[in-house]
Amino acid sequence: MTGKTGHIIILIIIIVLAHVGQDIYAQGTDMGLVRKPGAFFGITAGPLKSNLIINEGTLDTESGSNSGRSFYGNLEAGYLISKYFGFKSGIGYTSYSAEISLYSYQDALMNRDSENESYELRITASNINESQSLKTMIIPLNIIINIPLGGIASIFVEPGMNLVIPVMKNYSNSGFFTYKGYYQEYNVLLENLPLHDFSSNRLVNAEGDPELKQTWLDATVYSGLNIVINPKLRLSGGFFYSRSVTDISGYKSRDEFHLSPSPGITNSLIGGADKVSTKATGFSITLRYFISR
Fold first, then answer.
1. CA 222 to CA 128: how far, in whole Å?
2. Residue pLDDT, tens place only, 32-56
3. How far apart are CA 273 and CA 250, in angstroms?
4. Which residue among 57, 79, 211, 219 has its CA within the 20 to 30 Å range from the CA of 184?
5. Distances in Å between the alpha carbon of 130 and those of 122, 204, 214?
6. Cβ atoms of residues 112 and 119 within 8 Å
């Protein structure tokens, strides 16, 4: 799904409302528009501003993450116990994109050359930029709280939890790396030898799949204004916020993390973080159809 898909879904909702909106005036606020308990299903869509939050770890330097624009969509089913309370669940989709920067990096690790001789690989790097893309399936469970304002309007608050399952993930990064090799046996430091992989300010590009947990939990809240369109349709619009409550990183040996384990190869920056979490904010529109009215 893309932002264009979200715009199409929102447009469909608007078209449906254009056909049924005249029912408000035909029926009036006292003829069938009373909020009654009952089962419903619905659709939610909207744009998000998403972010990956990186807590420092073995990177031991300054890093940052910029948020990207993404899309949220959800098919839901639920039940209103009363005109004030209810619950809902369903299945949804959320995408995340983020840009992570690491301004400087240094490391040293033991390695072996093409002749199987052991040496210490010394690495310094700068201006490392990484693009992260994450697409997830979500299973929400929310409580519905309605506060009637009179007439056809009410304020709603829907706190809850999402079970998040990553379905697509990838990263690409680039940076300038300097590699030196120290041979303790000969007390020799090799540098500026590109043919032997000991190069200076080498531009390294890499891509792959970051290691993430198979599932995690998001805390979420959706709040805004609810309008009764006719006895079977309700329109809601409001702001959406979610944040993971557990670490989403799947890297297990972070103390042994190396951004570049060998010359010309780089891993994802999130492998060296103490904790990785997601955050998303946005605006969503929900259209609900009540089964029995």
1. 36
2. 455 567 899 999 999 988 887 877 6
3. 11
4. 57
5. 22, 12, 22
6. yes
